[in-house]
What we know:
Layout: H1 12-26, H2 30-67
Amino acid sequence: MTALGFIGGMSPGSMILIILVIVLFFGAKRIPELARGLGRGIREFKDATKEIQNDLEDGLKDDKKKKD
């Protein structure tokens, strides 16, 4: 199940209502700023996970070299 899997079960009317509430709550000018911030946060998270994965893979390669 994906993180946004619940969207598939929503009706179009519900989605429109949610979008309207978001626009009213944050204002039309703030939504692009929020989206950019969210995009940056997701990108930083992905970069950090890739860095950790690369560090782990490098550590495993070093362990194999030491055993040989």
